[in-house]
Structure formats: structure tokens, C-alpha cells
């Protein structure tokens, strides 16, 4: 619909420079420039390298997205940007760019939460998010179970990892197996040739006395590394496919088991899985089966929307506009540890909690805000 908000979203929290454009729940452009190759030889993301790459990629990626969407910057109803959590220096590049564009164009600025964006992106694939939605968020930096009654204003953490994130575990095991970085996609691929029951690796925090919704992957990581070391010490060949499949099975088993349990306990009928690890084929298959058995509806976006991208930020920004959430102030800062309970960063000085979405007035609104806050 033409009256749905047209929003550009900028994502720079890690190593992807993402710029997406959406109209309401419709994806118009999803431009991503990744610096992952520059980090590969270090075996992980180097913050300074990521920040510099964002700076170089920012403007060309914005231009590419506008061209892909076939819209003029002046037609936008708002600019959304990941304000956190993420790498401070990397976030800062996106926030600065978003401010510059929003201010120059006279559009409202929406600083949004990276984790809530990973959930909201599913609206571009499967339509409006059911309320409430249970979200299993699994990426290189996070593993959380979140209950979201309203993705723009009410996100409640039920549990999270107490040590490594799920994606981090994939990356570390891939490193031990000399498979390169990032580890998730390559383990996913190699595991298809292996036996997931070959080795019984531990399932962390699944005992009766353990926290029901928290995760732990460091014990698993150590167990897999020791198993590989023992093989190597004995001069035996490491069965890479079997190790990959068995390790992946342990991660996916715990993730899906806890997510389904959370849905049942909370009486929620819809499970959404997001974040880079949601691209994992075994996770998708097991979640599908377990949700079906439990009578739950599963929503997982296509893999390209699961890994970091700008469309997810635009999707959440558009929802903020549609629901009349207040824009951010011009002194919006990047917050590397923005709490998951803050889906966006509203202007602390805004007098109203919501203003209704109106194309004609957004311009005035921005300039009012700018005078008040820019030099505050
Ligand atoms: O969401 P994301 O792109 O960035 C963060 O916010 O962290 O997630 C990246 C993580 C990496 O750890 C990567 O190894 C993992 O997602 N990943 C996967 C797969 N594709 C990416 N893990 C398992 N299987 C995959 N197919
Ligand atoms: Zn992410």
C-alpha cells in the first residue's frame, strides 16, 4: 500500500554494512557489503578493520539500495539505524551516517535495537508478526529466548547464553577443525556428509536443576576440542564430517528443545527463529519437526534475511513509524550494550509517547527536534 511508511535502514553493528529499504512489510532493497574476507585470516572480526570497512562502504551501499528500490531519498518517511548492541566503533559509523542523511533530508531518525530487528525482519517474509511471538535469537554474538508481545515496545528476555553464543561455538569449532571463518556455513555444509549420532557430545544446561531457558556452549566446545585432540594425539584421522554433524546436533537439539519448551510454558503458539545461526539447515529442519509435534507455528526468514542486513533495521523502523513511536533525538549515540528490552531509543525529551504517522508533518517534527537537541 502506498500509504505504508517508506523507511531506509542502516546496519553496521558487526562486519556487514547493510542498507535496506522497505515499504511497510514489503522489501524493496537489501544491499549488503561484507568485510568478512578481511577478518578471515584473524579467525574473528577485528573491530578496527570493521569500522574502516563500514566507512568505505557506507555511501556506495546507500546509493545502491536507493537505486535497487527505485525510490528517491526525498520520498523516505524515516531513516532507521542500529543503535546497538554491537561493536562501538562499527555502530558509530552507521549512526553518524543515519544522522547525516536524516538531518540533510529533513526526515525523522530512528535508532533501533539490533536484536529486535533480527525478529522484525520476518515481517518481510511472512507478514505481520503474531503478538505475542516467541523468538529464538541465535547469532555470532547472541543466543537468547525472547518473548515479544509488541516488537516496537515490549520485548522480554526469558533466557540467554551464560558463556559463548551459538554462532561463536560454530566459529570456534571450525577453527579447531581448520575449516576457516566464519564457521557456521562450512560446518553446516560438511555436517550433511556426517552422522549426527556418531559422537555423543554434551547438551549444556539441560539437567532438571538447570535454568530452563539459559544456554551454555562452552562445555560443548571444550568437549569437542578434547575429542579432536585425543584423536590427533593417537595419530588417528579426525572424522571431520562426523564431528561437525555431532557437534551441530548437540547445539541444535538444545536450542530447539528450550525454544519449544518456552512456547509451551508461556502459552505462545508462534516461534520465530532469527540471527545468523537461523540460516543453519539442521536447525531449520529440527525446529520444523519439533514445532509441528508441539502444535506450534514456526517462522524462519530465508537465510539472507537471517544474517546481518539493513532490511531488518528498515523493517523495525517502518514498524516504529507505523505505530507512531517517537523518533530518536539528534544526539542519539551508539550503545554497544543497548539492552534487549529497548527496541528503540526514543527521544528522552519527547513530550508524547506517540505521534501518529503523517507524511505532511514529519518534516516539521524533525526540525523542531533538531533545534531543541542538536546544540543541547
Ligand atoms: O547474525 P549474524 O550475521 O551476526 C551477528 O550478529 O553475530 O551471525 C553470524 C553468525 C556467525 O557466528 C556464523 O558462523 C553463524 O552466524 N552462521 C551459521 C550459519 N550461517 C551463519 N551458523 C550455523 N549454520 C549456518 N548455516
Ligand atoms: Zn546479528
Automatic annotation (TrEMBL):
It catalyses: L-threonylcarbamoyladenylate + adenosine(37) in tRNA = N(6)-L-threonylcarbamoyladenosine(37) in tRNA + AMP + H(+). Keywords: Acyltransferase, Cytoplasm, Iron, Metal-binding, Transferase, tRNA processing. It is found in: Cytoplasm. The keyword Hydrolase does not apply. It comes from the Bacteria. Its main location: cytoplasm. Fe cation binds at residues 114, 118, 308. Residues 338-376 are annotated as: Disordered. Belongs to the KAE1 / TsaD family. Required for the formation of a threonylcarbamoyl group on adenosine at position 37 (t(6)A37) in tRNAs that read codons beginning with adenine. Is involved in the transfer of the threonylcarbamoyl moiety of threonylcarbamoyl-AMP (TC-AMP) to the N6 group of A37, together with TsaE and TsaB. TsaD likely plays a direct catalytic role in this reaction. This is tRNA N6-adenosine threonylcarbamoyltransferase. It comes from Streptomyces niphimycinicus. The lineage of its organism: Bacteria, Bacillati, Actinomycetota, Actinomycetes, Kitasatosporales.
